User: What shape does this take?
Amino acid sequence: MADMRGHRFKVVGLELVPYTIYRRDPPGSKNPVIPLQSLDFSILHTIADKLNFTYEMRPPLVEQFGLPLEDGNWTGTVGMLQHQQADFSLVLSPTPGRTQVVDFTRVYASEPLCIISLKPRPLPQHLQLIRPFSGDLWVSVLVSVACWAATLWLLQKAWSSWVSSFIGSNSKNSGNNTSRNIVTISKAFLNSWSVMLQSQYERPPLNITARMLVGWWLVFCLVIAAAYRSSLVAHLTVLSMFPPIDSFQDLLDQDGWTWGLPSTAGSINMYFSMSPDSVTQEVNKFLQPETLENGLERILRGHHSVIANMYTATIVISSRYTDTHGFTPFHISKTSYPVFAGVAWGFRRGAPFRQRFSLIKQRMIESGLIDHWMSEAITAAAKDGEKAYATYKPMASSMNYLQHKE
Assistant: This one.
């Protein structure tokens, strides 16, 4: 297998940026596709030159990567390999079911999923007054005010009863002191709030226990007020934003939110349906099949996200939804979700040349060629998208609408 003497292979594969990019005739044509700069074609051309073979590539009859049918057959690329209609395929994710009907080379690249959403919007300005403290801290402050007021009222009431019992109510001075220190529960509560709001505490109590209580309350209010002022200055200086959507759990936490998935992603559909994770299963219940373009349009209208391949999302957004100043309305999640082991090439069962392909791919990975070609493919795809942006009127109109709305 070191020299294949110009043998012509039949190759099958769907277009998937940045792995496989090609130019093709209208649907239904039997002519081979014309390869363009992309990761898999860089690998294929290098292996073809090394092993001395040629190829012709066509898309699968059913344009899917491969989904199982009830009778044991598969659709798309996997189905063509299963029925020996092609020698091997380009980018294809190995799954437990696919490995039963197709042989794979070693994995050469990851295929992470990401969540595309609108960038977080600024929080309403009227919330800036309460944002310096969290909800738990506000509750703690309110409980502290109520508890301190109740404690002060009980101490004053107990002290007043003690004075009346042991000193007597006939003495004029005792009566004045006692009446001065009688505090109602409402007055105690208002006093506690006044100190919290940095107002002066009027007519402090005479007994030492209540004075100690008031003194410690003054210290407590001083600390809380200083913390609030410093945090408020920070929040007014830096614009506060709604939290971004960075994980599947964030999707589930949104109210009235929808999310979609590109309908051609067969392995991604299998990833969601076979995942043992409860959060992923819950996300799968509400997945809506849609194209990436339609999904991005829905994101611009609000309350929608798209789960897509990270490389494809990066290229489409940078080429079609990013202006000359680098602004884009979309946010790509920081959390990525690898789909199975990654991507590989599929081969018809028993193909004797598969091991040779795997060996050369391993050398490419170790030498850094795969990473280098991936970077080149992403850059080339983004540049081609910029040229086509002017003719892509639906996306351009949506971008203008969003900028006008802002």
Q: What stands out?
A: The CA atoms of residues 71 and 129 lie 64 Å apart. The longest strand covers residues 112-118. Residues 174-179, 386-406 have pLDDT under 50 and may be disordered. The radius of gyration is 35 Å.
